[in-house]
Amino acid sequence: MEFENIVTENNEGILHIIINRPKKLNALNRDTIQELHEAFTDAREDEEVKVVILTGSGEKAFVAGADISEFADFSAEEGRELAAKGQANLFDFVANFPKPVIAAVNGFALGGGLELAMAAHFRVASDNAKMGLPETSLGLIPGYGGTQRLPQLVGKGRAMEMIMTAGMIDAKQALQYNLVNHVCEPDELIEFTEKIAQKIMRNSLVAMSAAIRAVNANYEDGVNGFEVEISEFGSSFATEDFKEGTSAFLNKRKADFPGK
Ligand code: COA
Question: Whole-prediction pTM value?
Answer without folding.
Answer: 0.97
